[in-house]
Amino acid sequence: MNTTLTRSLALSVLALSAVGLTGCVTSGSAVGADSGGSLAELSSDETVEIVFESYNLNSAGPWTEAIEGLIAAFEKEHPNITVTGQGVDTANIVSSIQQQVLAGSPPDVGQLGFGQLDFAQTDLQAANLTELVGQEALDEHFGGDYPFHERARVLADIDGSATGLPYVFSTPVLWINETVLESAGIDPATADYSTWDSVSALAEQVTAKTGNPSINVPCIVTGGSWCMQGLFFSNGADVLSDDRSTIEFGSAEAIDTVEVFQGMYAGGILSNEEEMTQYESFSRGDTAAFQLTTSALQSSFMQGADANGWTLSTSEMPQFGEQEAQPTNSGSALVMFAQDPKKRAAAWEFMKFMTSAEAYEVITTQIGYLPLRKTMTEEGGPLYDWVQANPLVQPNLDQLDRLVATKAYPGDQFQEVDRLLDVAIQDAIFQGKDAADTLPEAAERAQALIEK
Question: Which of 152, 296, 172, 322 is nearest to 236 (CA)?
Fold first, then answer.
């Protein structure tokens, strides 16, 4: 899809607010044991204070404004519950919660990445929601007028139990600078973005014109492991066996995937920059024609295109040859760490509100994350008009139907496993090392870590 960006569209997205939100739960509706769970009830005359730790609250801007607006809306609907939001850097959220758990005062609700959920359950005392609130209550929450997409509702499950509620996420989409393409003599409306071969051919034409790399793929640098899993899956590879016992990123298919990008770099069309530098340079419209990255950057790229005078469009994640692309998800789940029965009841109400249809109206329009209740975007739904006015989101919505969940490595060394894979990929692509050596070696070391 190719869509011309207009200034009015960008401003209209930022102008949307949480005014007029109405919640879908009441302060006395906590689930009782009769639904199969063991959650205490919270009456409307009992006051409770809970803490919500979130990386979306870590910096000023649309993300923080959106979440603070939702907290205020929740408190208005639940006057007996006060929510204190505290921000934390994405990279430090696990260590932050771990320190608070050890100190005996964890946040009542935390926003954790999907790859961190196994550790949250085994080491951070996260509540098992299936046991706490019961499957009936989970099914009721995931249903309603705008039910959770079937591929989204299980993303926070570990071994068949809900460790959290899927909250916000995006898929990797191909962002396109149409102005750069046009300067290289390419018509963006007829260009083929469907495969990595066709995108590479376009990039070669752009690089021949500019003399600079024209493809950014933050998935292959540190911090892009969630997206890199999607590239592996799309080429027939995997990172972890289904029974979560065996590391699999040393396979021939994984090696082949890395070699595709190794060839792009050797050919001069793939950039070698840190993740944040890639975001910033693409937003400025410097030289890159393509960037494969999270759809959550939509607002930032729209503002960048508007400010710097270039045209932005999107397409779905390119595929390898004839194999259908298998997009993965970034993002997070809401995880309960509260231990006090009343705080748990209040936390459950807050978690339900933050994953309600009302919340996704704000989360989708102000931040750019997918509405996990996808039917909200269909005709008659509260997000239908917004999607029609913002066609940049369509590839992200379409990819939800074939989403493959990112995998969480077991054990307390899950972050080291990610680091080993990151280093192996970058050594092969940017340092010229043999992927057939680096990936199997990294996989062997990672296997030893998950077996500890």
Answer: 322
Tell me which of 14-28, 131-145, 275-289, 403-417 is least confident.
14-28
pTM over 0.90: no
In a domain, 214, yes or no: yes
Average pLDDT over residues 261-286: 95
* Number of Cα atoms under 13 Å in the Cβ half of residue 28: 4
143 vs 141: CA distance, rounded Å: 5
Residue of 94, 99, 98, 95 whose CA lies nearest to 116: 94
> 179 and 320 share a domain?
yes
Q: What is the pLDDT of residues 349-393, one digit of tens each?
A: 999 999 999 999 999 888 878 899 999 999 999 999 999 998 898
Q: At 427, which CATH number?
A: 3.40.190.10
E strand or H helix that includes residue 215: strand 215-216
Whether residues 239 and 123 share a domain: the answer is no
**Rounded to the nearest 10 degrees, what angle do helices 298-308 and 7-15 cross at?**
140
Asked whether residue 23 is assigned to any structural domain, the reply reads yes
Residue at 361 is within a domain: yes
H, E, C per residue of 62-100: HHHHHHHHHHHHHHHHCCCEEEEEEECCHHHHHHHHHHH
DSSP 8-class letter at 319:
B
Same domain, 104 and 212: no
User: CB of 23 within 8 A of CB of 353?
Assistant: yes
Decide: 168 and 56 in contact? Cβ < 8 Å.
Answer: yes
CA distance 365 to 375: 15
Same domain, 420 and 320: yes
Q: b/e map of 249-258 (b: 16 or more CB within 10 Å)?
A: bbbeebbbbb
Average pLDDT, the chain: 89
Structure-block tokens of residue 245: 């016992």
At residue 295 the predicted structure's pLDDT band, cuts being 50, 70 and 90, is confident
State both tokens at 39: 């959650």
- Domain C-terminal end among 400, 422, 439: 400
Q: Based on the structure, what is the number of domains in the chain?
A: 2
Taking the alpha carbons at both ends of the chain, their separation in whole angstroms is 47
Q: Is residue 24's pLDDT more than 60?
A: no
Q: With contact defined as beta carbons under 8 Å apart, do 207 and 268 qualify?
A: yes
Residue 252 belongs to domain spanning: 172-328+409-450
Q: What is the pLDDT of residues 81-118, one digit of tens each?
A: 999 999 998 888 999 999 999 999 999 999 999 889 99
> Is residue 175 classed as helix, strand or coil in its secondary structure?
strand
